[in-house]
Amino acid sequence: MGFKEFVKRRSLKARDDQRTKAAELTLRQSVYPIALVTVLFFLWGFSYGLLDTLNKHFQNALGIEKSRSAGLQAAYFGAYPLASLGHANWILRHYGYRATFIWGLFLYCVGALVAWPCIEAHSFAGFCVAIFIIGNGLGSLETAANPYITVCGPPRYSEMRINLSQAFNGIGTILAPLIGSYAFFGLEDENAAMANVKWVYIAIAAFVLMLAVLFFLSDIPEITDADMAYQAAETHAGSGDKPFRKQYRLFHAAFAQFCYTGAQVAIASFFINYVDSTRPESGDVMASQLFAGAQGAFALGRFVGVILMKFVKPRIVFLVFLSSCVIFLAPAITQGHNVGISMLYIVLFFESICFPTIVALGMRGLGRHSKRGSGFIVGGVLGGAVVPPLTGVVADHKGTGMAMVIPLIFFVMASTYSFAVNFVPAYRNNTDAFTETEIGIGASADAAVVEIEKGEVAAVGTDSHHEAKHYQ
């Protein structure tokens, strides 16, 4: 392969008015691209778990209040809508998924390097700036990775696919608190602990840079607006042809994501504080290890959810899991100690599938609006910047146990979407259309992919092609 051909194959720009094979990949053909993108889920799971651990560490090392330490979460999740509705979504719509992956990894690397001098100077404000840059990088990755996983393979299994990939996110959230319990809380010298934080972020920067190079060199299928219009037309979901402002199910999903993510992040952010205040004999090291165990329950819930979705419709599993979050969080407000901690373990187990399932269900039938729509759903992560500070204020004045009433309220509001996709026909029928489709399944799928690879099908049918051109 000559240099010109190499450069052409490495092009980061994809034409949205042409179909690729991505819309009709079989399970076997989708394994490599899904595995590569799944590494990103582990990466931001580790970053998220590390952030929750650092929340408590900075309270100890810098002597700041709970409400101020929540500034880490505000900086991290506040960056998400800037990425998902701004720069990352622009790159996604004008270039493609691979370009957005590389852009997100670049920002993550820059943020991790900026964290280095800020940690050296013991500057909490500076570290928040570094976390804001990292949040922009991870927001960019989520803007592309979540919709990519839902579409890359048979539509029937999209909820299972994204939950399985997100399960590796859960593994990352387990490892981060375990590392934190020994590297941050296990040392008497706070300067040594801060130095360990620095080296963790330097290692992250090196790993992320290598991953960006791997994405540049990898041949993974792009997913275009024409691909999404084709899927919407084939499944008869019937909403992708409407103007974007009339995608009401999408906006409801984004609202649910805002409420759900805010509640999830608030619970994780103050889990260690909750253990300290309701079970004071534990200490910070044990509290961090208990948090790692809770994140283990979270990861386990994702694998259990994937298995259940094989036999039960994903929308029903989603309803049961999100409703259980409400049911089991309520006792944790007043009980505390071992009972309250056990309730939070159960809540994290049931939280597991909610975020990715909202993404998958919310993108059903968006067709040519899929890339723009994914930005709105991921932008709902802004709730992670809003709810934790509110929870922190209540924790400072009423105690961490009573503060759990704040995430409970937001779980209840998020539940409106889980009820809608199960009991409102306009929502339910759209969801079930994708669950029952045969795209990417069986011999007909293999024949269709071969046809596209030979170049005999270069674009969608007349209607879908018109939609894609109209989008541009």
UniProtKB/TrEMBL annotation:
<feature type="transmembrane region" description="Helical">
    <location>
        <begin position="71"/>
        <end position="92"/>
    </location>
</feature>
<keyword id="KW-1003">Cell membrane</keyword>
<keyword id="KW-1133">Transmembrane helix</keyword>
<dbReference type="Pfam" id="PF07690">
    <property type="entry name" value="MFS_1"/>
</dbReference>
<dbReference type="InterPro" id="IPR011701">
    <property type="entry name" value="MFS"/>
</dbReference>
<feature type="transmembrane region" description="Helical">
    <location>
        <begin position="166"/>
        <end position="187"/>
    </location>
</feature>
<feature type="transmembrane region" description="Helical">
    <location>
        <begin position="99"/>
        <end position="117"/>
    </location>
</feature>
<feature type="transmembrane region" description="Helical">
    <location>
        <begin position="339"/>
        <end position="363"/>
    </location>
</feature>
<keyword id="KW-0472">Membrane</keyword>
<feature type="domain" description="Major facilitator superfamily (MFS) profile">
    <location>
        <begin position="33"/>
        <end position="432"/>
    </location>
</feature>
<dbReference type="GO" id="GO:0022857">
    <property type="term" value="F:transmembrane transporter activity"/>
</dbReference>
<dbReference type="GO" id="GO:0005886">
    <property type="term" value="C:plasma membrane"/>
</dbReference>
<dbReference type="InterPro" id="IPR020846">
    <property type="entry name" value="MFS_dom"/>
</dbReference>
<feature type="transmembrane region" description="Helical">
    <location>
        <begin position="250"/>
        <end position="275"/>
    </location>
</feature>
<feature type="transmembrane region" description="Helical">
    <location>
        <begin position="31"/>
        <end position="51"/>
    </location>
</feature>
<dbReference type="InterPro" id="IPR036259">
    <property type="entry name" value="MFS_trans_sf"/>
</dbReference>
<dbReference type="InterPro" id="IPR050375">
    <property type="entry name" value="MFS_TsgA-like"/>
</dbReference>
<feature type="transmembrane region" description="Helical">
    <location>
        <begin position="199"/>
        <end position="218"/>
    </location>
</feature>
<protein>
    <submittedName>
        <fullName>Major facilitator superfamily domain-containing protein</fullName>
    </submittedName>
</protein>
<keyword id="KW-0812">Transmembrane</keyword>
<feature type="transmembrane region" description="Helical">
    <location>
        <begin position="375"/>
        <end position="395"/>
    </location>
</feature>
<feature type="transmembrane region" description="Helical">
    <location>
        <begin position="287"/>
        <end position="309"/>
    </location>
</feature>
<feature type="transmembrane region" description="Helical">
    <location>
        <begin position="401"/>
        <end position="424"/>
    </location>
</feature>
<feature type="transmembrane region" description="Helical">
    <location>
        <begin position="316"/>
        <end position="333"/>
    </location>
</feature>
<feature type="transmembrane region" description="Helical">
    <location>
        <begin position="123"/>
        <end position="145"/>
    </location>
</feature>
